[in-house]
Write a structure and sequence with these properties.
The chain is an alpha+beta fold. The chain is built from three helices and nine strands; from the N terminus they run ββαβββββββαα. The mean pLDDT is 86.
């Protein structure tokens, strides 16, 4: 299941939101930026005055953002998906960038190692809280519509596979015993 992390809205992001509200325009996030910030970890205090990390720290290019989903009227979630074809890099920062290039919100993480070509897919979700977020971003689907927990279905499929395997082994075992019995009878004749 994807990890959901609440982002820190930057001071520049708050000003961007205020300008958009005043102009009655949508808040638009165009991409995620990933970075490997030296010394940062999930325990690093997020400074709202922070801007984008230095270009030399950025990794993975600009990653497109799909439409947000709303948590409630005052929080939306942006989803980051790094497919198995993306990599190789390490990152401990991800942030949502606006259509004007402003870092709206970001979060520090433990270092994530992203490697391409090994079937590794990373999902991260960034919750961005601000007043009237649902309306200001045009988010029209609730987070529950795509954040579904498939754990019970997966367990049921695994149980079905195990039961099928046991039945197959049992049937093969019976066939072997019948074959051995036939061989013994054949040898006696």
């Amino acid at each position: 299941m994807a990890e959901i992390v609440s982002g820190t809205v930057t001071d520049a992001g708050a000003r961007y939101i205020a300008r958009k509200v005043a102009a009655l325009e949508d808040v638009v996030i165009t991409h995620f930026v990933l970075a490997n910030v030296p010394g940062a970890s999930e325990t690093t205090t997020a400074n709202p005055a922070a801007g984008l990390p230095a270009v030399s720290q950025r990794v993975g290019g600009n990653i497109a953002v799909e439409a947000p989903r709303y948590n409630n009227d005052n929080a939306v979630t942006y989803s980051l998906v790094l497919g198995s074809d993306v990599g190789d890099f390490d990152f401990n920062f991800y942030g949502a960038v606006t259509d004007t290039g402003v870092l709206l919100a970001f979060q520090y993480l433990p270092v994530n190692r992203k490697r391409a070509g090994i079937g590794q897919v990373i999902n991260r979700n960034l919750v961005v809280p601000f007043s009237n977020a649902k309306q200001m971003t045009g988010a029209d689907l609730p987070i529950e519509s795509w954040q579904y927990d498939y754990e019970s279905e997966i367990e049921a499929m695994q149980m079905g596979v195990m039961q099928n395997s046991v039945a197959t082994i049992s049937a093969l075992n019976s066939a072997i015993k019948n074959h051995e019995r036939l061989l013994k009878l054949e040898n006696k004749i």
